[in-house]
Amino acid sequence: MTIREIRQPGDHPYVFGRYHAPIAHITPGEVVALYTEDAFEGKITGPETLPSQVLGKYLNPQTGPLYIEGAEPGDTLAVEILAIEPTRDWAVSTLIPYFGGLTSTTLTRTLQDPLPERVWIYRRQPDGMWAYGDRFAVSARPFMGTIGTAPDLEALSALTPHMHGGNMDVPDVCAGNIVHLPVNVPGALFSTGDCHVAQGEGEACGVALEISGKITLRFAVLKQTPILWPRILSPQEIMTVGSARPLEDAARIALGEMVDWLTKSYRYDRWDAYQLVSQTAKLSVANLVDTYYTVVAKIDRRYSD
Amino acid sequence: MTIREIRQPGDHPYVFGRYHAPIAHITPGEVVALYTEDAFEGKITGPETLPSQVLGKYLNPQTGPLYIEGAEPGDTLAVEILAIEPTRDWAVSTLIPYFGGLTSTTLTRTLQDPLPERVWIYRRQPDGMWAYGDRFAVSARPFMGTIGTAPDLEALSALTPHMHGGNMDVPDVCAGNIVHLPVNVPGALFSTGDCHVAQGEGEACGVALEISGKITLRFAVLKQTPILWPRILSPQEIMTVGSARPLEDAARIALGEMVDWLTKSYRYDRWDAYQLVSQTAKLSVANLVDTYYTVVAKIDRRYSD
Amino acid sequence: MTIREIRQPGDHPYVFGRYHAPIAHITPGEVVALYTEDAFEGKITGPETLPSQVLGKYLNPQTGPLYIEGAEPGDTLAVEILAIEPTRDWAVSTLIPYFGGLTSTTLTRTLQDPLPERVWIYRRQPDGMWAYGDRFAVSARPFMGTIGTAPDLEALSALTPHMHGGNMDVPDVCAGNIVHLPVNVPGALFSTGDCHVAQGEGEACGVALEISGKITLRFAVLKQTPILWPRILSPQEIMTVGSARPLEDAARIALGEMVDWLTKSYRYDRWDAYQLVSQTAKLSVANLVDTYYTVVAKIDRRYSD
Amino acid sequence: MTIREIRQPGDHPYVFGRYHAPIAHITPGEVVALYTEDAFEGKITGPETLPSQVLGKYLNPQTGPLYIEGAEPGDTLAVEILAIEPTRDWAVSTLIPYFGGLTSTTLTRTLQDPLPERVWIYRRQPDGMWAYGDRFAVSARPFMGTIGTAPDLEALSALTPHMHGGNMDVPDVCAGNIVHLPVNVPGALFSTGDCHVAQGEGEACGVALEISGKITLRFAVLKQTPILWPRILSPQEIMTVGSARPLEDAARIALGEMVDWLTKSYRYDRWDAYQLVSQTAKLSVANLVDTYYTVVAKIDRRYSD
C-alpha cells in the first residue's frame, strides 16, 4: 500500500479554526501520513539558542487543516493513530520565562523574577532511550501534543486545549489508540502537531521532549453521534478528556463525560455509572501548564466490553 | 512473633491534633496491629440506612493517637505498612447529599437540589473480587484513607488532608509501602482509619468501598530529617503528596516536593530535577472531594536509586 | 453637531476577531453612536419565552467591528463613553439552564438537575427606577457588558472576556468613563454590545437587566503605548481589569497590572506601588459566570494625579 | 459607665478552638474593652527588623477566648462593635517571604525566589492620615482582621478564616457594625485580634497597617437562630462572608448565604432572592492571601428593611 504523505504547503497555522482553508481533502478509510514541525518550528537547536531570543510570538505550528469528506456537524471524527515516528535523532526541552507549572505565569501572575532559561538536548541512544548527556535517559513513548478539529465559531490558539481537542498534551494520543473528536464544521478541519518523544504527566515545566514527526493516520466518520469532549480508546481502556481551569473543573468534566458515556453507550444506570467511576477510574493530570489544564479519566475495558 | 494488637479504648477521635491523649506508647521497630472502624462507624449497613438519617455530625473515626517513643519535632516518622486486612466480608459505598466530586457541596455551593441518596453494598466473592450484586465487581486493593500525625498547633478534622497527612485517600497507602510523615509534636501522635477495600483515583462520589480493618505496622523514626509534606516509598516508585485547593495547587505542591526531594536526597541539580520530573513523573488525583484535594506525584526508582 | 449613527448592516458577529470585515471606518476624535441588540437579540420578551426554547446557539450579538483609522498593533485604543441610552422601556433577566454563578455549568460540571428556567421583565418607572412588578425595583446605571478589540490571532466568543476586553461585565464601562483597550490588529476592529440597565457585582445568575441600547463614543489612539489588559479611567479612580479562572488568577492580574501601571506611569518604586495597592485598592468581582471570571482593581486618583 | 477592660493574662492563643480555657466570662449586654497585640506581637518595629529574622512560627495573637454567658450551640453571637482605637501612633506593614497575593506561597508553590523583604512604618499625622514618610498617606479606617468563635471540634490557626469567622480581614468589621458569628460550643469562646488601621480590599501583600488596639464591644445572644457563616450588619447594608479556595468558592458561599438570608428572614421567593442579588449585590474580595480567601457580598438595606 502506498501511503499518501502530506506536508504543509506554506505557513503552518497557529490556531484551530474554520478560517483557514484546508490543505487536503481526505476520504475516510484512507491512510495518510502527516509531517509535523516541533513546537518551536525547529528554532531551538542547542543551549545557546535561548527561547526568549529565538522564538516568535506563537508556538505549536499545526499541520492542517484537513477536510474529511462526509464529516458534518453532529458527527464524531474517529482518528486511528497507526504510527508516530520522530523524524530526527534529537529532541529539545526548555525553560521558557513565565511559562510552566512551577513558576508564575502571565495568567497566574506574581511580581517575582522568572526562572532561568535553560535548554536540554536529548539524543537517541542505540538502546532506544533518549539521553540528556550522561545525566539521565527517558524511554520513548511518542505522542501528539496537539490534535483537534475546528470549533464552530471561534479560532483558538494552538496552545489551547478545549472541547475541540487542541493542545491537550495527553500521552495516550499515541500509536495504537483511537481519538474521538467532535465535528463542528463541514469537513471537520482536522489539524495536529507538537510531537513529543516523551512527557511526564502534568508536563511540569511546560515543555516535553519536542521533536518533528511523521504521524500515520486513518479517519472514520461516526455519523450523527455527537460528543461534547474528546475521547480516547486504547486496547485496555476507554478514556475521557476534560480541559478547563481550575484543575478540578477539568477533572469534573472528564469524570462527568465518563459517567455519561457509560450511561449512554454501555447501559449503566446513571448512579451505578457514577459508582463504577468512583471505585475504578484512573484520573491523571495531562498538563497543568496550558491555557486550560487537562485531566484524563480512564476505565478498564472489562467494564465497557 | 506475637504482634501487639491495639483497639480503641473508648471513643474514637475525629480530629488529628495534640489535644487527645495517646492510647498507647510504641517503640520504634515494634510490630503492632491496629483495628479501625469504617468511615461511618458501622452505621450504614444496607440500602435502607440512608446516610442523612443514620449518620452523626462527624465521619472518619480514627484509631489513635499512638505515642511513638523518641519521635520529636523535626524528625520524620516512617510507617511501614506490613498488612491491611478487611475484618468483614462486605463493604459499603453511598451518595451523601452535597458531598462528592460531581455535585455541588457546602464549599462549592449552588442553589441546586442534591443528588439522590444511594447505598451500595459490595460482598467479597470466592475469587477475591468484591461484587455489587450482579452489576459489577472490583478488585481488592486495600489501603488506609486516613493516616497522619498531629499538627503542632491545630486540631484538624479527620476529613481533612494536609501537611500532617490525614484524609489523603491515596491508594498507595497500602501494604508493602512506607509512608513518611512529619513529626510536629513529641511522640508524633499517629492515627489512622478509613480503611478502603478499593477506590478509584479521585474518589469521585466521595465514598470508597468503606470497611473496618486491621492494619499491621512498624514505625521508624528518622532523626532530624524534617519533611514538609507526606511521602510514600514503594518498591518501584518514590512519591510525594500535596493537598490543597484549587487542585492545581495540590499538584504544584506534589511536584515541588519531588523536585526538592530529588535535589536534596539524590543530588540532582535543581533545574535538572525539574526537567526529570517534567519528563517522567506520573501525576494522579487521589481525591477531589475532601476539604482539600490531593494529588500524588511519582518517579520511578531507576532515577533515585 | 451631527452625530454619525451606526447600525449593524446584516448579521451581528458573535465573536471578537480579525476574521470579520469592518462595518465602518472611524476617525479618532469623531463622535459616533452605535445601536446594539440585547444579549438575546430580542428573543426573550416575557415569562412565556423560555430561554431553552427560543435561544439559538450563540449569545451577545456585537455591533461592529469598527476600523479605527491610524490604530496599529502596539497602540492603545482609548474609548470615551459619552452616553449609554436604553432604547426601550423594559429589560429582561432570566435563569438559563446550567449557566450562572450558583449552579453547576458546562465547565463546572455536576450530575445535578438544572435550576428552573425563569424570566423577569423589568419596566422603567416614572421615577427612573426599573421595577420587577411590585416586588422590587433597581436603580438604572447603564453600561456595556461587552466591549473590545480583535485579538491578533484568535477569534474569541462574545461570551469571553480576556486581554482584548470582550464580555467583561464591568459596571464601570459606563458613561463618563474612558476604556483603554490593546490594539492587536490594524484598525483595532472594535466591537461592543450586551447593554445592561443595571447589574450587581458578580452578575450572580449570569444575566443582568438586558436591553437594547444606543452608545455614544469618541475614540483616541495612544500611539506606541502598549497595554496588556483593559484599563478604565473614571473621574475618581483608575482601574485595571483581569479575566481568568480561577477567580484568584483574575484578581492577581488586576492587581499586578495596577502595580505595573503605578510603577511605569506614576513613577512609584515597584515595592511602594505594591504597598500602596495593598493598603488602598478596591477589588471587586465583575462576573463569576463567564468563560473567564473578571475582577476589577481600583485606586483613588489622589494617588495617580 | 465604667467599661470592663480585658487584657490577655499570659500567652495569647494562636488558634480558635475549644481547647483553650476562657480568660473571662461576659454577660450579654455588658460593654467590654479588649486590648489586642498587633499581628507580629510587636516584634517588627522598623526597617531593620526583617520578618524572617524576628518572627516566630505563628502570627496573629488573639485576645481571648471569652466565655459568653448563655451562648449555646445553635445560637448566634451578635457582636456590636462600639469602637476600635489604635493604641500607638505608628503602624507597620511588610513583605514576608512567600506570603501574599502577588508571590508564590507555601500553598501556591513555584521554584522562584521570594520577593525581597521590606518593612514600611506609617506614622499618624495631625490630620488623622497615616503616612509612609513623604511617599503617600492613607486614611484611617480601623477594623479587626480576626474575630471569631471556637469551631466545635477543630482548633484552627489564627491565620485561617472559615465558618467560625477567624482571619477574614474584612474591613467592614469596624466600629458601628454588628458581626454575627455561629455558636458552636457552650459559651461561644470568642476571640479577636489583628487590628488594622487600614487595608485595601484583597490585602494584596498579605499585611495591612498592623497595630495594637483597643476594641470596645457588646455581645448579644440570638437564641436558636443558627447561621452557617459570619454575617455583618451596617447601617446601610447587610453582608455575608464566605471563605474558601479557590476564590470563586468563597464568592459562591457569600452569594448563596445572601440568597438564603433574604429567603428565610425577609420572605423573598428563592428565585426572586437570587435575582435581587444578581442585580444589586456588591461583591468584594476581602483577602486573597490567607489560608482561605474571603469574599463579602452586600445588599442595600432598602431591600431588607
Automatic annotation (TrEMBL), chains A, B, C, D:
<protein>
    <submittedName>
        <fullName>Acetamidase</fullName>
    </submittedName>
</protein>
<dbReference type="InterPro" id="IPR004304">
    <property type="entry name" value="FmdA_AmdA"/>
</dbReference>
<dbReference type="GO" id="GO:0016811">
    <property type="term" value="F:hydrolase activity, acting on carbon-nitrogen (but not peptide) bonds, in linear amides"/>
</dbReference>
<dbReference type="Pfam" id="PF03069">
    <property type="entry name" value="FmdA_AmdA"/>
</dbReference>
